[in-house]
Design goal:
56% helix; two-stranded parallel sheet; six-stranded mixed beta sheet; alpha+beta; 26 helices
Length: 507
């Protein structure tokens, strides 16, 4: 955190003389002022200038070695990004949008963001703060208050931003402001899906995202953004527990988030045995899992955010899959695969990339598999079963393991059985051990023979049979049954003589 503050100060010292040379007046506004007064570090530094904001941003980008992004040419706004992704500082430049800076601030979202400081006073801003909306008073009271009754009508995305800022600042949403959000919640439908996606992702990145999601739901926002969650309120979480599948989904998000934060170095908050057993089981792979969770997929979101989104959506298939079974018990057949398809529909609608959509779909559709392996094989899966799990889940396998554990714990709650939990954790550890320590042996065996060689050696023509033979060879490699090209050909001949490749046995 200290390094980030020094970098921000260095940036300001380098760029402000240029900004002031180009403009008679200029101001630091919004988040930078708010966070300075709160004594918080910030990566967002916003400037307002009378005109020519994009041109100034372009000059600043050259001076500080940052990347320029034009946000809105008509409104003369641009952003300069400086630093690496996880430590990037955002320098936003905007044109004054009113006759005065005071009027400009009164058109902003929340009073705590309607603050400005002349750039000449940035080193000692306390006595030069411009505060037409009473933002300093609300900072002291730790309240998030809309600047005006029309704030959310002017930009409905501000309603989701209120939920995010509440979490990031540790504030409460002022009562009248909350009522205005409920009043205008339907207006979120008019916001571009890209902007909604970005704000939802930022909410998931805050502390206690499940609490924020519940608040967004209570304010009438989340069900409009993701209407697929609505039916979950009517689906019981389990026959032996009270509460709905919607409550369970939020519990799963909370446990998945706690796990990710622990992987990244946070302390596990409580000393109850389920969490202690989980951290002990994952401890040998804490660093590689954390690095995996930090992977940024094409589209710009990391695996951790997509895991939390998958946790939120992992049971969306349950309502559609409900069937009447023997007696009066309800069965939820195929909800995982169906849920994967529904989750993919949600992520596509929110304009996540194809790679991000595929990751969420795979994690949701596969989240039951580790539990199935425990029931079929106990805590020690076969090499063949491990190979098949990662063959089907690919890079999403680690994410799937984490969601499966969160789902198990959230489903059982206080009724979690120690022995069942131990077996699930042991199986998860076995899968992770193979993925991180024996990847080339079990997960992605080296190619012993390719399709052309197989066809030439066995006199086969192109067709699906060749692919089936190659897959049987790879499975046998993972199981330690085939170690050379000759053994691979021997297996292929035997399978052909038996009428074709053997189909997979039990998982």
């Amino acid at each position: 955190m200290v390094a980030e503050r020094v970098l921000a100060e260095e940036l300001l010292a380098r760029m402000l003389p240029v900004v002031e040379a180009r403009h008679d007046e200029s101001w630091l506004v919004g988040g930078w002022v708010r966070d300075y007064l709160l004594g918080m570090e910030t990566r967002d530094i916003d400037f307002v200038v009378p005109s020519g904001a994009i041109a100034t941003a372009r000059v600043v980008a050259d001076i500080v070695g940052g990347d320029l992004v034009v946000l809105d040419r008509e409104r003369d706004t641009a952003r300069v990004l400086v630093g690496e992704r996880r430590h990037v500082i955002y320098l936003d430049f905007a044109m004054l949008r009113a006759p005065s800076i005071e009027a400009d601030l009164l058109a902003r979202d929340f009073t705590v963001n309607a603050l400005a400081v002349p750039t000449w006073a940035w080193r000692a801003p306390e006595g030069a703060v411009i505060d037409p909306a009473g933002g300093r008073r609300d900072l002291e009271r730790r309240l998030l208050r809309a600047v005006s009754v029309d704030s959310f009508r002017e930009d409905p995305l501000r309603m989701l931003r209120a939920v995010r800022l509440r979490a990031s600042l540790g504030f409460e949403i002022e009562g009248e402001t909350a009522s205005w959000i409920e009043r205008d919640a339907e207006l979120i439908d008019a916001v571009s899906r890209e902007r909604v996606r970005d704000e939802l992702s930022l909410i998931l990145a805050q502390v206690r995202p499940a609490e924020s999601l519940r608040l967004a739901d209570e304010l009438g926002l989340l069900g409009r953004v993701i209407p697929e969650i609505e039916p979950l309120r009517a689906v019981p979480v389990a026959a032996w527990r009270t509460g709905s599948t919607w409550d369970h989904s939020l519990d799963s998000v909370e446990i998945a988030d706690r796990t990710v934060r622990w992987l990244r170095g946070a302390m596990w908050a409580d000393e109850a045995w389920p969490g202690q057993m989980l951290t002990a089981a994952l401890a040998p792979y804490r660093l590689p899992i954390s690095e995996h969770m930090a992977e940024v997929l094409p589209g710009g979101h990391d695996a951790a955010i997509l895991l939390l989104l998958a946790a939120l959506l992992h049971d969306v298939g349950k309502s559609a899959a409900r069937q009447e079974g023997a007696g009066d018990e309800e069965r939820l057949l195929g909800h995982d695969v169906l849920g994967g398809s529904i989750a993919a529909t949600v992520t596509r609608r929110l304009c996540f990339s194809g790679a991000e959509t595929d990751r969420v779909r795979t994690v949701v559709s596969s989240h039951m598999r580790p539990g199935q392996l425990v029931r079929e094989m106990g805590p020690a899966p076969s090499e063949r079963a491990i190979y098949r799990f990662f063959r089907d889940t690919r890079a999403a396998g680690v994410d799937t393991i984490l969601l499966s554990l969160a789902d198990h714990w959230a489903t059982r709650g206080e009724g979690l059985e120690r022995e069942h939990w131990r077996r699930h954790l042991a199986l998860s550890r076995a899968l992770l051990e193979a993925y991180f320590e024996r990847r080339e042996q079990v997960v992605v065996p080296p190619v012993l023979i390719d399709g052309h060689e197989l066809m030439a050696s066995l006199g086969l023509g192109p067709g699906p049979q060749v692919g089936e033979l190659l897959e049987s060879i790879r499975e046998a490699q993972a199981a330690g049954e085939v170690r050379s090209r000759e053994e691979a050909l021997t297996l292929a001949r035997r399978l052909l003589e038996g009428g074709g490749p053997l189909q997979a046995g039990a998982h």
